[in-house]
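Repro case for the chain-ordering regression, as requested:
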Amino acid sequence: MVDEFSAKPTTAEILRWLREDDPARLARLWAAADDVRRQNVGDEVHLRGLVEISNICQRRCAYCGISALRTDLARYRMTPPEILDCAAAADAYGYGTVVLQAGEDPELTGPAIAQLVRDIKSRHRLAVTLSLGERGDDDLRLWLQAGADRYLLRFETSNAELFARIHPSAGRHGRSRIEMLHRLRELGYEVGSGVMCGIPGQSYDDLAADIALFATLDLDMIGVGPYIPHPHTPLGEQVEILRLPAGQQAPNDELTTYKAVALARLVCPQANIPSTTALATLNLAEGRELGLQRGANVVMPNITPMAYRRLYEIYPAKACIAETAQQCIQCMQARIESIGRRVGLGPGGRTGRTKTKPAEDVS
Ligand code: SAM
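-- result from build under test --
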């Protein structure tokens, strides 16, 4: 195993692994990813409390169940006191990080989010991760100066033509998601990105290129999950428009997602990699645990209040049987301990990177 995995896999090797279906060989991939994970980020599993602060979105993404195209979905935006209550709960449960995620909601203005970040940072010793879509430099700088630590923006697929078909441009900032990831790094954020596996029209070659791009971008956080069709979205309704020739389409299944997680670990040994909710949605019994045993080291318990959570419907039947945040933490803790790992304490940022100096004053 040492010889086979002594160097980071090339794009050609990534491609071969994505097409591999021999269980004995795959067992070697899982073991290698688990070894690299242990050596680089240890046995701790960091918990990030996820708060879905608004399901209002002005984008028209063909894959996403909260896109502006959905006219049948009730919309919400949490109030600042509601969000601060969630941050307090994250702190009380011992999570080191709170993640504020939303659709691209124009009312979540730069100053409003900056005030929220300041309030969270002044009350709690929590790292703050933002995942608010494509935003301009002014907002990004303001949030960094308010104390935000990290930003998550998946590039979804590195195939620019496919991305343009499923993610119509807003034409506002004139830069791609990949350009924005570079900018986030320059500004001083810890940078997270990732992809969906098995988007209709995404080939095995595309997915291999995506994983190679994780290394080029030297990502601090990598989120990979299966694409899960939502029946009330254009892509969920008409897969055939993007159909590829037989044998080329990357599957949107559990196995392909584990391979992508394991390969992401091999190409970015020090990254924080969640075992995603989308993965647990495909296999509620043990999807999270298998992700953690095949390269992942983070889980993101959802602490959005229940009444809002059911409306943040990016895909149907998101995994979670817990009725309360308390049940959720107990469930996560038991799952982590059942595989011989332990819950990480503190913010659990990227190890081995010297933080870039934050950008100068915006004024
Ligand atoms: N608006 C922000 C953005 O676009 O980055 C954050 C919210 S967006 C709903 C969060 C992530 O949900 C996306 O990056 C995408 O990968 C994932 N997602 C959306 N629709 C999905 C689907 N049908 N299946 C799996 N993941 C999906």
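Ordering looks correct now. The longest helix spans residues 23-41.
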